[in-house]
UniProtKB/TrEMBL annotation:
It holds the Pfam family TPR_5. SUPFAM superfamilies: TPR-like. InterPro entries: TPR-like_helical_dom_sf, TPR_5. It comes from Leifsonia shinshuensis. Residues 39-158 form the Tetratrico peptide repeat group domain. This is Tetratricopeptide repeat protein.
């Protein structure tokens, strides 16, 4: 799998130069080398479709990868990317539920900050603007050594009025 991973990483490194359709084709060629139910290959196929703006095709592939036992580090990436996909498919409440479950189970996950960012976007898309800002500021506050407490307090006081 190391050689396969290196070749997949090379495709992603060249994606901007290749363009969307050629990237999907190159990823699919590598995915075809793996068993049909390989969770990492399914994740890569989903990511390629996401990259190409084909979210409706990406969603079932992300779900299959996760159901197939996708391991870290790809598992966390798949959850965040699936949530982003759901948001782009106009399903922000579903995206938010997925991210909330992830953050509840793994609050210290290396991608927790990204999960909070996408949760804020989903909240905004769902018309919950104060909640979205609270989410974003709440994630940012711990990284503000001087003003973190003030930011947390102001965030808590936000409302949509």
């Amino acid at each position: 799998m190391d050689d396969w991973r290196q070749r997949m990483d090379a495709v992603w490194a060249a994606a901007d130069r290749l363009g969307e359709q050629a990237t999907v084709a190159a990823v699919d060629a590598l995915v075809a080398e793996r068993p049909a139910d390989d969770p990492v290959a399914l994740f890569e196929a989903a990511g390629a479709r996401d990259y190409a703006g084909r979210e409706a095709e990406a969603e079932p592939l992300y779900r299959a990868a996760l159901a197939g036992g996708l391991a870290e580090p790809e598992r966390g990436q798949a959850i965040v990317q699936l949530a982003s996909t759901l948001r782009n498919l106009d399903r922000p409440a579903e995206a938010l539920a997925l991210l909330r479950d992830f953050l509840l189970a793994e609050p210290e996950h290396p991608l927790a900050g990204a999960a909070h960012a996408f949760a804020a976007l989903a909240l905004f898309d769902d018309g919950l603007h104060a909640d979205a800002l609270r989410e974003a500021l709440g994630a940012l506050a711990p990284h503000l050594p001087r003003y973190g407490g003030a930011v947390e307090a102001y965030a808590a006081a936000l409302d949509d009025d």
